[in-house]
User: What shape does this take?
Amino acid sequence: MTNSHAARGIDTSRPHSARMYDYYLGGKDHFEVDKQAAETVATAYPGIFVCARENRAFMHRATRVLAREHGIRQWLDIGTGIPTEPNLHQVAQSVVPDARVVYADNDPLVLKYAERLMRSTPQGRTTYIEADANEPETLLTAPELAEVLDLSRPVALSLNALMHFITDAQDPYGIVGRLLEVLPSGSALALSHCTPDFDPQTWEKVTAIYTGAGTPVQFRAQKDVARFFDGLELLDPGIAVGHRWRPEAAQGNTGTDEPPTDAQVSLWVGVGIKP
Assistant: This one.
C-alpha cells in the first residue's frame, strides 16, 4: 500500500496494531512501517504468526458453536480489524442465514474496507460502526446498533485479541461489564487474549515493542483473563489455550502437521453464557 491513504485520516507514519495483525495473517492491507514493526515482533516471538492464525480459528469455532448449540442469532464484534475472509458474519450466516452482526472498530483503515463487512445474506443484516471500545456508551447508543440488533434477545459479544490493548488504567473489566450489562440472559461473551504465561521473557520484549511504537499493551495471565467471565457460565473446556478450545479436524490435514505448542499460541480463550 502507498501513503496516498494518509490524507484520508490514515496515519502511515507509525505502525498500527490492526495492520500488523493483517501482516501476521498474510494479508496485504498494511504499510511498510507496519511490516517492519511486525517483523521486529516476529524476531522476538516467532510464534506470532501461529498465534494470529489460531486466534482467527478460535473466532470461527466459537461463532459456529454459539449459532448451532446456543441459538445465538446476533453478534456485536468489537475490535473487528481489517476484514479477512471468512469474516464473522460469513461464518455465522453459513450456519444461520438470518444472523445479524454489528462490527465496531476505531481504525479508519477498517472503515475503508467496511464494504466487505456488509455483504450479508438476504435474510441477515450487517453494519459497521466507527467507535472506540474505551467509550462503550458511544457504541451502545449508536443508531446503527439499534437498527440491526434487538437487545431484548441474546447477543454474542465478540472480543477477539482486543482486551490486551486496554490496560488496567483504562478499566478493562469495567468496559466489558458495561457491555454485558445491557445484554439479556442467554447472551454470550467470546474472548481471546494474548498471555505471557508460557514465555514471560519473550512477552516482555513484545510489550516493549508495541509500547515503543505508541500502542500500550497489557498481556494477562490466565487468572486475569478469567476475570472477564465473572458472573458468566463458562462453556467447556473453560479458559483454554486457543488451539485447545473445542478443536476440529483440519480439512485436508494429512496427519503430518505438528500441532502448535502452547508457547507458540500464547493465547487464552473462552466463551461464557450470561445466566
